Amino acid sequence: MDQVLFIVWRESVEALLVVGILYAWLKASPAAGRRGVRYLWGGVAAGLALSGLLALGILGISQFLSDDGQEYFQAGMALVAAALIVQMVYWMKKHGRTLKRELESGMSERVQQQNWWGLLVLVMIAVGREGSETVVFLYGTVAGADHSRMLGYAGAGLAGLLLAFATFWLLQLGGKIFNWRRFFQFTEILLLLLAGALLVSGLERLVSIGALPGLVDPLWDSSGLLDDSAGIGKLLADFAGYRSHPALLVLGLWLAYWIAAVGVLRRVGRKA
User: Fold this and answer.
1) 56, 104, 131, 229: most buried by Cβ count inside 10 Å?
2) Cα separation of 139 and 73, whole Å?
3) CA distance 80 to 202
4) CB-neighbour burial class of residue 240 (10 A; exposed 0-12, middle 13-18, buried 19+)
5) Angle at CA 63, nearest 5°, toward 243 and 152?
6) Is 105 exposed, middle or buried (0-12, 13-18, 19+ CB in 10 A)?
7) Is 111 within 8 Å of 103 (Cβ atoms)?
8) How far apart are alpha carbons 23 and 29 in whole angstroms?
9) How much is the pTM?
10) pLDDT tens across 142-161, in order?
11) Residue 27, Cβ neighbours under 10 Å: how many?
12) Distant-in-sequence, close-in-space partners of 121: CB < 8 Å, separation ≥ 6
């Protein structure tokens, strides 16, 4: 549930950031006026609908699969979610500083051309992108979970959404300690940890159904020191991919993931 809360919180803040930038620009632009705001909210609604359709599509596909097919599908979605998180962190690191300027530039072009439907599509894509990522991340996280816990997951999602509105409001105050740059630096680290946890989850599914060899499974047993099913061990398992009984293949790929992710992001950071 902590993963669900974090995913909804982080992605909702990003979506609110995009909408907030465009809304502020429209309100400050005499050329845009009230008509542009209507198309902005229309784009938000269309983006949310797009995300909802993706969610229904994913759930629909999973219903038609056999037991083995669902295992492959859930493993695949966890791995796709991990890859998308890394790509998102990479994209934000590369474009984060120019995001506001790029959004306003795209908005200005469409307003000058009186292309209100183009404005709606711009907002729809921006919001739909965040919503679609949320759907994929959440499916990769909760797929295969006990149905009795779904109400708890829904509550965690709602709490994440409310927390996102509170966070956005605090960030808008523009404090010197709690600002956008530090927010994204902090959450980038959490996202990379979460991507590592999803990678481990997806690989473990593939090992458990025999699609991948564990090589040495388990490599060790540290459950007596730190159990991954409760307490701090469970938190580390959910957010960092810790396992008290790791398979050699999973551990090796997890280490390779961190070496590659840190190397690529450091190179992007030097160029930014």
Assistant:
1) 131
2) 10
3) 9
4) middle
5) 50
6) exposed
7) no
8) 10
9) 0.78
10) 776 666 777 788 888 888 88
11) 13
12) 43
